[in-house]
Amino acid sequence: MGETAARPLRADAERSVRMILEAAERLLSQDPGASMEQIAAEAGVSRTTIHRRFAHRQALIDALALSAARQLAQAVDDGRPATAPPLVALHRITANVLEVKGAWAFALSLPATPGSEAATLHEDMAHRCVTVLERARADRLIDESADLHWLQRVYYALLGETLHGDPADTLTDPDALAARVVETFLRGAGARG
Q1: Please, what's the b/e burial string for 35-51 (b: 16 or more CB within 10 A of its CB; e: otherwise)?
Q2: Where are the domains of the chain?
Q3: Helix 36-43 to helix 2-30 angle, to the nearest 10 degrees?
Q4: Which of 126, 122, 143, 138 is CA-nearest to residue 187?
Q5: FRET pair for 110, CA 20 to 30 Å: which of 27, 28, 164, 175?
Q6: Class assignment of domain 1-54?
Q7: Residue 64 near residue 110 (C-beta atoms within 8 A)
């Protein structure tokens, strides 16, 4: 019976942590100096609840960065970087990443603490990006002499510009945005002939 009673508490604790992290993302993206008390109010939890879950502000920030990194890693995994056809993987990963980065812009802008789980996840995602680019090169989607690490930086820049470049851009559908990013990335701005 003790196990059954513990499950609802665990689910409740997970729900309150999720609510706190979501509230922290919303509030900190508008005001990076927001206090723990302001975040608690935004999450609809008591001040003691937030302090019970997170000993101090940096613990909350670290948890926020880790949660966002995990979601981003899952978005990349869901694109099947090692098994889907490279063009499909590139499109799916791009759409997934744009969704996650759009929802967790503040958390994903935080530098990962070296040696942390979040840093390891980001390093792994960077390796998977190069893997997709290698596979795209093998399928002749990318020139065989292309510098893949440079292309990775270009791809990341396109993602960043898509998310933050022009507030007047009316295109918001992740699949349509991904198509634009992938088209620009693979074909550039050269004339079609």
Answers
A1: ebebbbbbbebeeebbe
A2: 1-54, 62-193
A3: 120
A4: 143
A5: 175
A6: mainly alpha
A7: yes
| Residue 118 · residue 112 · CB < 8 Å | yes
Instruction: List CB contacts of 154: < 8 A, sequence separation 6 or more.
Output: 185
Rounding to the nearest 10 degrees, give the CA dihedral for residues 72, 75, 79, 82.
40
Per-residue pLDDT reduced to its tens digit, 105-116: 899 988 888 999
Dihedral sign (CA 109, 107, 180, 140): positive
pLDDT interval class at 143 (50, 70, 90): very high
Identical topology for domains 1-54 and 62-193: no
CA torsion, ordered 40, 45, 46, 47, to nearest 10 deg: -20
pTM over 0.85: no
Per-residue model confidence as pLDDT tens digits over 12-39 = 778 889 999 999 999 999 999 999 999 9
For 77, counting Cβ atoms within 10 Å of its Cβ (0-12 exposed, 13-18 middle, 19+ buried), the class is middle
Q: Does domain 62-193 sit in CATH 1.10.357.10?
A: yes
Sign, Cα dihedral of 63, 68, 73, 74? positive
